[in-house]
Amino acid sequence: MIHDDLLGAHVSTAGGIERAPARGRQIGASAIQVFTKTPNQWREPVLTDSRITSFGEELARARVRAVVSHDSYLINLASPDRRLWARSLASFRAELDRCRVLGVAFVVTHPGNFMRERRRGLQRNAAAYAEALDAAPGPRILIETTAGAGTALGATLEELAELRELVPPGLRARIGFCADTCHLFAAGYDLANAWHDVWSEWDAVIGLAHLHCLHLNDSKTPFGSRRDRHELIGEGTLGPAPFRRIMRDRRFRHVIKIIETPKGDDPVRTDRRMLRRLRAYARSRPPARV
To answer: How many domains does the chain have?
Structure first.
């Protein structure tokens, strides 16, 4: 069945990135998220012309309508350590360049860890975004909301908005956002009991027009825990209601939706089941207004 809902999952690129679209098709995805490199290694892969061409052909064959990349877990663009910051910037620039040649429009990135001074961390993060965007035309950066553990930036809407505003105006149009439901809930935004309040605040502080991707994850931990622990859709502390709302809310119709939920012993079966559940929510009766 062909779906036009921009809904999918993070899929493996084992064996080559050109294998990812078929894995998306196998679970019924119309959108996928990928790593273009091993996320916990600094080593940068070389993309051959044949691999780039094959990726595009496989996307068309699988009828995947949208692709987002997620950058390396090692990158910390807010780090006060000059060597780590420079290495992170080089890796981030390489990620943008790979996405450019692959035709991937969006790169999801976690704001960095400031370590000591929050304000200086924001400035370092923004400077790195600006330098990377200037060097690699094409893809947009999507800054992901965080749960707020430790010295991680990006747990408040105000901080996310400030990070974007610190980027020079000429490059700012290429910066948007990815909202993770688990992270928002853990950071103190109550999607379970104050749905409309959360998105009204988002629109006022950041603007819904800048939201291009949603990571749909339930949470293993309680509201405000500041812990990033994903659970299967509708089976965690968020419960089914927020996901029903997301799937039925017209404001999110054209926003890419990606699950990063636990895959269990049978990843294909589990991901397929989660996507079917979300599509069933989209067909269900609208919930009462909260």
So the answer is: 1
Residue type, 74: L
Residue 289 within a domain = no
Which amino acid appears at position 182 of this protein? C
Taking the C-alpha atoms of residue 59 and residue 153, their distance in angstroms, rounded to an integer, is: 34
Mean of pLDDT over the chain: 95
Residue 8 has pLDDT above 90, yes or no: yes
Domain of residue 222: give its range.
7-283
Q: Is residue 118 part of a domain?
A: yes
Residue-wise pLDDT tens digits, 114-165? 988 999 999 999 999 999 999 999 999 999 999 999 999 999 999 999 999 9
pLDDT in tens, 221-265: 999 999 999 999 999 999 999 999 999 999 999 999 999 999 999
- Cα distance between residue 92 and residue 112, in whole Å: 12
Q: Identify whether the C-beta of residue 163 lies closer than 8 Å to the C-beta of residue 154.
A: yes
Q: How far apart are CA 70 and CA 61, in angstroms?
A: 23
Asked if residue 102 belongs to a domain, the reply is yes
DSSP 41: -
Instruction: Establish if 50 belongs to a structural domain.
Output: yes
**CATH number of the domain within which 30 lies:** 3.20.20.150
What's the CA gap between 2 and 7, in Å, rounded? 11
